[in-house]
Specification:
The protein is α/β, with parallel strands linked by helices and 147 residues long. It has a single domain, classed as Dehydroquinase, class II (Rossmann fold, 3-Layer(aba) Sandwich). It is 39% helix and 19% strand. It has a five-stranded parallel β-sheet with strand order 2-1-3-4-5, sandwiched between helices. Helix 4 links the parallel strand 3 and strand 4. Helix 3 packs parallel to helix 4. The longest helix is centred in the N-terminal third of the chain and has 15 residues. The model has no long low-confidence stretch (mean pLDDT 94).
């Protein structure tokens, strides 16, 4: 059986993990987070490729690519979560499942961060568990892909 492929997409400022507001986002770097997700993928028999972009158009293009080349998407749209109709539309335009993840609990943060424009286009959302949330998101996605 061919292993499943997932594209991990991280949005703006996530390249600053480990440096940016460690009290909110933790001290794990993006490279460490990506390796942790890849390791979880190996346990699950899922190949994980990772990309990070700060620009909205780059994220839309990554989602389009995922729709053509991957079986699923694990996505942290960063601040675009709360503002981007374009990213939401991109998720809806592809035929692969997408799980949205956030390091912090967006629902317990500032009012402008409590609404996700992108989550309704996803099969689920995991927030507030730090880096472990990415592993949970990958597990949920792998489970969906098995069905």
């Amino acid at each position: 059986m061919k292993s499943k492929r997932v594209l991990l997409i991280n949005g703006p400022n996530l390249n600053r993990l480990g440096l940016r507001e460690p009290e909110v986002y933790g001290r794990t770097t993006l490279a460490e987070l990506e390796e942790e997700v890849r390791a979880e993928g190996r346990v699950l028999g899922v190949e994980v490729e990772a990309v990070q972009a700060n620009g909205e158009g780059e994220l839309v293009s990554a989602i389009h690519r995922a729709g053509a080349e991957f079986d699923g998407i694990l996505l942290n749209p960063g601040a675009y979560t709360h503002t981007s109709v374009a990213i939401r539309d991109a998720i809806q335009s592809v035929s692969v499942p997408c799980v949205e993840v956030h390091l912090s609990n967006i629902h317990a943060r500032e009012p402008f961060r409590q609404h996700s424009l992108t989550a309704p286009a996803c099969i689920g959302l995991i927030a507030g568990f730090g880096v472990y949330g990415y592993r949970l998101g990958l597990r949920a996605l792998a489970h969906r892909l098995e069905r």
